[in-house]
């Protein structure tokens, strides 16, 4: 026997319709590229998104075709999050920080039919346009007079003119909720980026899961929240801030392209932001700037960090500023896959006990399942101690990659077909908390035991004179691999390698201590802001560890 409820598709257009009807006066606030702050209500945003959808249809964009975007966090980009998928096309968000060859590969691989860009990406478009094979039209997101005359593009339309030519209003089309809505590419640090195709259904479910009261600590009615994603909109869809804020009825604040500490702090304070999402790197920059300038937060109460495990020292600094430093786990392939709130009974914990818990990445969201395996594919228990390869599955988890099927790099014998191998080494606790120990490709195997590069890095960044740190494996004739710690000092710092090792002693097992410490002016980063370990490994290829280790030795 089947149920007798109505069957209505879960579409992204429903989110902006809901916000316009139920939270009509809540605002999208964006700092535009020229520095001025633009405001629109969700009701106004819906009308402009409808006009965009009508305009794209008039330009000939077909259902299922891709519209690529190179742009920063502005009002027009927010409207594209609804106007493009709302009319049945696919929004392809692209990182302007990627290298030219990666941009060309991504755009051609996705077969983008139309392409939108803002004034901050003109030079990138000039460089890549001659190499693109599928783009038949361009949309400039700025005024006509801001587009250089020497930019030779086949057909250029202008964003505001597209909207001005349309009546707006009307109803969004309905179609299968499993239709593609957005494409995001992985960072591609070890090869070509891979395309992850999100459906309408998967995004709506992910956003609904995010709104559960135990996902974000102290979740309050949206009308009391102001949300600001430090994550660019091209990075995992801005962690779906453009979708979650309208659903929860929160004001949404977009920082444009200025991600300096001063600009972020000023906008956050001016708009009374209460909740932020961002990678640990940007938070380290902001917190260090605040320390140097004697600043505090007046409204911010919580932040969610993801993308890399945040150093405990960073979480402690935020906690002491009155901000709950939550950590979430996820990846491009998994949308929001963990609930970050501390579970019941933890409100009375001490500061140190809470910080211990904040080092965990939360618990799985409803309908997402975790699994741990050893190197041979055998199950690893959720005992809070045992480490294993993390696998996930669920309705918000990618089942394959664009044009690569389910199996882009091959599977080991015995792997389960319907699980995604994340590439993370994790510990799962009996209460459901997930603790990311390392990336599979970064873990150091010394004397048959694992050393977590993440834990060593985070411990090193607790030193007041260390700005950033990375740990890589160096071949060792006896122990197989030993850790090399590569650091960048803070401005004016003079700390030595020996002093760093002494600082680490007692924080980690003696045999985890790095055999050597090297310093660079700054560590190389990928286009998404992550430390680029591939480049560090290349820089230290052939490195010979000292005969007498400065740090620890592998276990007997």
Automatic annotation (TrEMBL):
Any Gene Ontology biological process: fatty acid metabolic process
Keyword presence, Ligase: yes
GO molecular function: ligase activity
Domain AMP-dependent synthetase/ligase: from-to ranges: 20-402
Entries under InterPro entries matching the protein: AMP-bd_C, AMP-bd_C_sf, AMP-binding_CS, AMP-dep_synth/lig_dom, ANL_N_sf
EC number: 6.2.1.44
PROSITE patterns the record matches: AMP_BINDING
Keyword entries, A-Z: Fatty acid metabolism, Ligase, Lipid metabolism
Gene3D superfamilies: 3.30.300.30, N-terminal domain of ligase-like
Domain AMP-binding enzyme C-terminal: 455-530
Identification of the protein by name: 3-methylmercaptopropionyl-CoA ligase
Species name: Albimonas donghaensis
